[in-house]
Amino acid sequence: MEQPKLENIPVKLSEDESLNLRCYFPVPPPLTWQIWQTMADGFKRISLFATMPAAYICFHIDTTPLTPRMKARDVLKHNYKEIHGNLSNLKFIGYCNITHSGTRMSMINAARALGKPSHWDYWLVIRPGELGWNEALLDNPFIRGAQMLCIENAEEMLNAYVGKVSFFCETPFPSSRPWHEFELYMRIELHRQFL
Q1: 177: in domain
Q2: How many CB atoms lie within 10 A of CB 98?
Q3: From which domain of life does this come (predicted)?
Q4: What pLDDT digit, counting tens, does each position of 126-178 carry?
Q5: What pTM value is reported for the model?
Q6: Sequential DSSP letters for 127-149
Q7: For residue 43, what are the domain limits?
Q8: For a tag site, which of 100, 114, 153, 177 has the least CB within 10 Å?
Q9: How far apart are CA 17 and CA 26, in angstroms?
């Protein structure tokens, strides 16, 4: 079956999305983010993302309307390559206000494994093999997707691998509200080993 036709269209972010991008994924001037929306077959919104060379930040991804089904990492690959030419310099992948329940729970469990409270207002860093890593991976399609993106595109990505993952939990006020109301953000940093 033929893959869906994906098209990237430049768009503007809402005020909240723009604030989140500036707060959680800041860049020094003169660098600026390009904002795009991915449409499938001309009318189905699949993703909303910001990008610049070396970075891709996802605000929204929903591949369920695609027939045949595509994985989110394939949409990321398509988008990044269409705008930047190839994956060789992709270094950061970010996700804003994560709603996927499994990913949210994996982030909370990773924090607990590190002895942190179930909410925190700073970037919590976890590296492969360290305490909290297994919890961070469990039911987290974003980290696993980044790992598979690196494996499936090893040559083009210059043998990149997931070297560090950072989570941020924006605690609502009052902080006694349930964890599913917290805004969660994730940064995945890709590393490369050059011989």
Answers
A1: yes
A2: 20
A3: Eukaryota
A4: 999 999 999 999 999 999 999 999 999 999 999 999 999 999 887 665 556 66
A5: 0.92
A6: -TTSTTHHHHHTT-HHHHHHHHH
A7: 6-94
A8: 177
A9: 13
